[in-house]
Design goal:
The complex is a heterodimer of chains A (422) and B (168). With 422 residues, chain A is α/β, with parallel strands linked by helices. Helices cover 32% and strands 18% of the residues of chain A. Chain A has a five-stranded parallel β-sheet with strand order 4-3-2-5-6, with helices on both faces. In chain A, strands 16-15-14-17-18 form a five-stranded parallel β-sheet. Chain A has a four-stranded parallel β-sheet with strand order 10-9-8-11. In chain A, a hairpin with a 7-residue loop joins strand 12 and strand 13. The longest helix of chain A has 17 residues. Chain A starts with a helix and ends with a helix. The model of chain A has no long low-confidence stretch (mean pLDDT 96). Chain B has a single domain, classed as Aconitase, domain 4. In chain B, 32% of the residues lie in helices and 18% in strands. Chain B has a seven-stranded mixed β-sheet with strand order 4-3-2-1-5-6-7. In chain B, strand 5 and strand 6 form a beta hairpin. The two termini of chain B are 19 Å apart. The mean pLDDT of chain B is 92. Classes of the chains: A alpha/beta (422), B alpha/beta (168). Chains A and B meet through helix 2, helix 3 and helix 5 of A and helix 5 and helix 8 of B.
Chain lengths: 422, 168
């Protein structure tokens, strides 16, 4: 019996020839990421019970991305403590406030390689499955344990295979693919499971699209959301000076708990309605949902490809009166490139406000919070009650194309109509 | 920490499906101390919960309890308020890991959402994986936690386990 991608990676991490779904293993951790909400707690815990030293400072990455720039004296004090810890512990891979979102920086700066076992104190750590890394979120106590020992227990998950074929039509993106999957299989449709994407459509998906899909695999409950390591992966890593990346694919006779198919050719733009990510409808089924805020950014859709797609629709036009368009490039590198390409000028002339590179309004920490009764459509990954301020506000999730078209219209709008005019 | 086979008995606070970490631990109070955070636990859907829940009470919920973020504070808030155990139709992976890691007992039990009402007296036997009504009329069999997770709970959490390992 062959192995799934998850079983292959976990076997290596456990120092075994093979492992099988359902087994408990202790895995060696190749990379451990902590961000500003939890880093100080993790290192405080480490000082108390873990001997105070990181198992290997070269395998730790610290990112200040959630509360940037610090919106309160308390947050500033937390950041200050993190900087002290980082210096004391000798961690070189430290990205301070404004560098970007962890899930963007780890791939962008070349920290992720196929086959790695990665943990992070953020649920969307599944993002790095786009580069065939078994990557998942853990809490602060477990991270303190990892920082002390370099190991963690895992249950080897069952794998669900998603076989994707066909080509996306104009105005439809991979955000729509993962929203459609969430709508079809539910917010717990991959609970405890490893999602594994394959099929002819995957070979044609760029790294940015894969990162979007793996990021939101978590919203279906996934432990990992894995793409194979192929020519797209090798090219992305070669751009970062990482050569000789071996392909990593599941065995042909791997055992799956379930296998699902989807034809992308027939897919319409999708929108997740309040207050669940799996409350998904095609955009053409929605009428007269006015919006007060549109958000373009986050670890899901804050990359240069996303800003380009939105700018193509907004170019030379103005957003509707009464709409606030907030744009948070996922990293300083993305922002810099967007400036070079004239995208920032296009967005600002259309009426956008550009926020610092960070998590921004997505997690409700600060910047772009909503009043009771307000509606926001955003490219991010969660629309839970109270996520962006008032519990009486409504959050809709969609692609960069749909968010841009909606900002122009002042209501949720079909980007295929706008895309036809581009 | 008592042995996880111990019975836990108390009032049930019942919640629906997909109770998220944003509800259990709102992001606005993300870096506040637990004394502040716990006051806001579930306030968006159950304003009286944090003030009225008593030590030893239990939480009963539907599918996908604790969905959303990695924030351990979602489990920590419940533990700090005195919740003895969470029994749900299903738990998000992260919530389940975090609860065990900090020593908050959990039980996955099909049918629990339907079988019990808010305010019911219930008893949970973790080792057996059962939940029983106070009058003994209704008993459901859940999925007992695997030994690997029960060991962490019995130690009082993963850091207590680490402490004992390094001390040993």
């Amino acid at each position: 019996m062959g192995s799934t991608l998850a079983e292959k990676i976990m076997a290596r991490a456990a120092g075994r020839d093979t492992v099988t779904a359902g087994e408990f293993i202790v895995a060696d951790i190749d990379l451990a990421m902590v961000h500003d909400i939890f880093a100080a707690s993790v290192f405080d815990m480490l000082a108390e019970v873990g001997g105070g030293k990181v198992f290997d400072p070269d395998k730790a990455v610290v990112v200040i991305d959630h509360l940037v720039p610090a919106p309160s004296a308390e947050a500033a004090a937390v950041h200050h403590r993190i900087r002290d810890h980082v210096a004391r512990l000798g961690i070189d891979a430290f990205y301070d406030s404004g560098e970007g979102i962890s899930h963007q920086l780890l791939p962008e700066k070349g920290h992720i390689r196929p086959g790695m076992m990665v943990v992070g104190t953020d649920s969307h750590t599944t993002t790095h499955g786009a580069l065939a890394a078994a990557s998942t979120g853990i809490g602060t106590s477990e991270m303190a344990y990892v920082m002390a020992t370099g190991r963690l227990w895992f249950r080897v998950p069952e794998t669900i295979r998603y076989e994707l074929r066909g080509s996306l039509t104009r105005g439809v993106s991979w955000k729509d693919v993962i929203l459609a999957l969430a709508g079809r299989f539910g917010s717990d449709g991959a609970q405890y499971r490893s999602m594994e994407f394959g099929g002819p459509a995957v070979a044609a998906a760029g790294m940015s699209s894969r990162l979007t899909v793996s990021n939101m695999g978590l919203e279906m409950g996934a432990k990992f959301a894995l793409f194979p390591s192929d020519a797209v992966t090798a090219a992305y890593l070669a751009d970062r000076g990482i050569e000789d990346v071996a392909p990593l694919e599941p065995d042909g006779d791997a055992s799956y708990e379930a296998e699902h198919e989807m034809d992308l050719s027939a897919l319409a733009p999708q929108v997740a309605l309040p207050h669940e990510v799996d409350n998904v409808e095609a955009v053409d089924d929605l009428t007269d949902i006015t919006i007060q805020q549109a958000f373009l950014g986050s670890c899901t859709n804050g990359r240069i490809e996303d800003l380009r797609a939105a700018a193509a629709i907004l170019d030379g036009r103005k957003i509707a009166a009464g709409v606030r368009l907030l744009v948070a490039p996922a990293s300083r590198g993305v922002l810099s490139q967007a400036i070079d390409e004239g995208i920032v000028a296009t967005l600002v002339e259309a009426g956008a406000s550009v926020l610092p590179s960070g998590c921004g309004p997505c997690f409700g920490g600060h910047g772009g919070l909503l009043a009771p009764g307000e509606r926001c459509i955003g490219t991010h990954n969660r629309n839970f009650i109270g996520r962006m301020g008032s519990p009486q506000a409504e959050i809709y999730l969609a692609s960069p194309e749909t968010v841009a078209a909606s900002a122009l219209a002042g209501r949720i709008a079909d980007p295929r109509e706008e895309a036809a005019n581009v | 920490m008592s042995e996880t086979g111990a019975m836990m008995q108390g009032r049930a606070w019942k919640f629906d499906h997909d109770v998220s970490t944003d509800l259990l631990s709102p992001g606005t109070y993300a870096v506040d101390p637990v004394e502040v955070r716990m006051i806001h636990t579930l306030e968006s859907i159950s304003p009286g919960f944090a003030s009225d829940v008593r030590t030893g009470d239990l939480v009963i919920a539907g599918r996908n309890f604790g969905c959303g973020s990695s924030r351990e504070t979602a489990a920590e808030n419940l533990k700090a308020l005195g919740v003895a155990c969470v029994v749900a139709e299903s738990l998000s992976r992260l919530f389940m890991r975090n609860a065990v890691a900090i020593g908050l007992p959990v039980l996955i039990c099909a049918g629990v959402h339907e079988a019990f009402a808010d305010g019911d007296e219930v008893a949970v036997d973790l080792a057996a994986g059962t939940i029983t009504s106070g009058d003994g009329d209704r008993r459901l069999q859940g999925e007992p936690l695997p030994p690997e997770m029960r060991d962490i709970l019995a130690a009082g959490g993963i850091l207590a386990l680490l402490d004992s390992q390094t001390a040993g």
